[in-house]
Design brief:
Low-confidence stretches: 419-429, 437-441
Oligomer: single chain
Distance between the termini: 29 Å
Radius of gyration: 21 Å
Mean pLDDT: 91
Largest sheet: 6 strands, parallel
Number of strands: 12
Length: 441
């Protein structure tokens, strides 16, 4: 059986405890934002056919912590392709990681296929005013295209960005986000209720650095909708739930600290694995917020969601998939949930999704990748492995269920942890592709 290497922090079928997930490299085995697990799990499952075994690279190539020539030699000998699912990799601050990946690609003799990469720029523009970012993006795309037919990007703005850098347009395929292609193109999203009731289960997601609406409005929403749950995604939020360590923010009205009402009422959840995340979302009547994958988790489970886009990274994916969205500039100042729900029309999404799914698998085949949706390539054994995995329960607010003495003990443990380990500490050892973590749930 041949093997392919897939960019990712952890094999989707291997459960891992919340504590171990957070401890890995200091910022989480999921790369800082748990939304990354959605497109990884989709790509991993899609390429894990009856004749091909997918193996995660544990994010080692982008870290630059190992001998690059030794790593390239092992990859060339062992794997038939390196498949690279990415998110907003074309952004300031990610040049070093992109450079590490570029240097590795140049040393490889096997196909290297990028499955969904995008820019992070202001709303409606394909321009990044940062020479280092543009230079690293061009070098990366050029190196990849020496090893593949095309490069897959998440939207038209990302395509235009690469074209502006001199990459031929016919070498850049717009394929959207793989998170929405976990199953054949028969996904349909329909409303479960005509109007949102005060006691209906609703999920909200927020990018703490860029709130989608006036943060002071969250307090009244929390009181009006007692079954509204905040679904967290960032590693700092997992740290808050596990250790009670507040996330410093300029927006004290957001549920990222232990004094917030949603924390006090145990109305925050953090999901470590897509199956649990989607299962939760399937039981909600509506989801909304500025997290792209927070809303995609709902949509992929058949639940209506509305994205509030604050940059090109989010808006271009919504436009490509015909996901309903508003920009932060259009966000209402009152009756938020009612107005958002009115905008959540999935008619066009439902119509276009089969076509976009077919375009996605055509892209895979164009670049020489076999997949489970081809005749004879289904892999029921792997699906059974996923179904039998004992994933941990979603993480809630531990402190809300402790007595005063236990709360004091938790604070002491949190202090000790914070004193002895920095959250940005990274591994400096070698690499081991496809690891199986020792600390599982």
């Amino acid at each position: 059986m041949k093997e392919i290497l897939v960019r990712g922090g952890r094999p989707p079928h291997v459960p891992m405890s919340p504590e171990a997930s957070l401890a890995k490299n200091g910022w989480g085995v999921f790369g800082g934002n748990i939304g990354n697990t959605l497109f990884l799990s989709s790509v991993f499952r899609t390429l894990n056919t009856a004749e091909t075994q997918a193996v995660v690279d544990c994010l080692f190539p982008e870290k630059g912590v190992a001998d690059i020539d030794q790593m390239a030699a092992e990859i060339n000998e062992r794997f038939s392709a390196w498949v690279i699912p990415l998110a907003n990799a074309f952004r300031p601050g990610w040049e070093r990681a992109l450079g590490n990946m570029t240097r590795l690609v140049r040393r490889l003799k096997i196909p290297c296929v990028v499955v969904g990469v995008g820019i992070q720029s202001p709303l409606g523009t394909a321009v990044i005013n940062n020479d280092r970012t543009c230079d690293s993006a061009k070098k990366f795309a050029t190196a990849v295209l020496d090893h593949s037919e095309t490069i897959g990007v998440r939207g038209e703005l990302s395509q235009q960005f690469l074209v502006n850098l001199g990459i031929p347009k016919d070498s850049v395929d717009v394929i959207g986000c793989p998170s929405l292609f976990n199953n054949p193109g028969d996904l349909q999203v329909v409303r479960k209720v005509d109007r949102i009731g005060k006691t209906d289960p609703v999920a909200i997601n927020i990018t703490p650095s860029k709130p989608p609406f006036d943060p002071s409005l969250l307090g009244p929403l929390t009181e009006t909708y007692p079954n509204m749950i905040y679904v967290a995604q960032q590693y700092e939020e997992l740290r808050l739930l596990l250790w009670g360590i507040d996330w410093t923010t300029t927006y004290p009205d957001l549920p990222v600290h232990s004094q917030h009402p949603m924390y006090q009422q145990d109305r925050i959840r953090f999901f470590l694995d897509p199956p649990r995340w989607r299962a939760f979302m399937s039981n909600q009547v509506f989801a909304f917020g500025s997290r792209l994958h927070g809303n995609i988790a709902a949509v992929s489970a058949g639940t209506p969601a509305l994205l509030i886009a604050h940059d090109s990274r989010t808006s271009e994916v919504a436009q490509y998939h015909s996901l309903p969205y508003l920009t932060v500039h259009e966000s209402p100042s009152d009756s938020i949930i009612d107005r958002f729900y009115d905008k959540a029309d999935f008619t066009k999404f439902n119509q276009r999704h089969p076509q976009l799914f077919q375009h996605y698998v055509d892209f895979l085949e164009k670049n020489g990748l076999s997949h489970i949706f081809q005749e004879g390539n289904a892999n029921p054994q792997y699906d059974a492995l996923l179904a039998s995995a004992q994933y941990p329960e979603p993480v809630g607010v531990l402190e809300a269920h402790l007595n005063p003495a236990e709360q004091q003990l938790l604070r002491k443990l949190a202090w000790l942890r914070k004193d002895q380990a920095t959250d940005k500490q990274r591994a400096s050892r070698g690499y081991d592709f496809g690891f199986v973590p020792k600390q599982v749930a």
